[in-house]
Design brief:
Blueprint: E1 3-7, E2 10-13, E3 18-25, E4 34-39, E5 46-51, E6 58-60, E7 68-73, E8 78-83, E9 92-99, E10 115-118, E11 122-127
Parallel strand pairs: 2-11
Antiparallel strand pairs: 1-3, 3-8, 4-5, 4-9, 5-6, 7-8, 9-10, 9-11
């Protein structure tokens, strides 16, 4: 059974940084594209970033480009989201997820419907 556990969330002032981690267990981590999504109360969960299984391809939401970086360490079965220059509008619960298809990355990598396994989420709060 695949399990994803996020950590690293917290309270930070605007302009600050946080690094989120997502540790995976079960399955073969390095064979799957991984993604980060976020959700605020009353809103749909939205795409933040994705990184292909090969680590060759990345994609970011326009709202985080240039500020967030997704990367992975396959030796630790962990995917990270480095968040810099944080803004109050980045406040949300952040979720990591594992893509549904083995060794695949494509145009639907930003769609939450293509991810099978999800973590429990970690709260990020950015104060102004």
């Amino acid at each position: 059974q695949v399990q994803l556990v996020e950590s690293g969330g917290g309270l930070v002032q605007a302009g600050g940084s946080l690094r989120l981690s997502c540790a995976a267990s079960g399955g073969t981590f390095n064979d799957y594209t991984m993604g980060w999504f976020r959700q605020t109360p009353g809103k749909e969960r939205e795409f933040v970033a994705t990184l292909s299984w090969s680590a060759l391809f990345r994609s970011y939401a326009d709202s985080v480009k240039g500020r967030f970086t997704i990367f992975r360490d396959d030796t630790k079965n962990t995917v990270y989201l480095q968040m810099n220059s944080l803004k109050p509008e980045d406040t949300a619960v952040y979720y990591c997820a594992r893509y549904s298809v083995f060794r695949s990355y494509g145009g639907r990598a930003s769609s939450q419907a293509t991810y099978t396994y999800w973590g429990q989420g970690t709260q990020v709060t950015v104060s102004s």
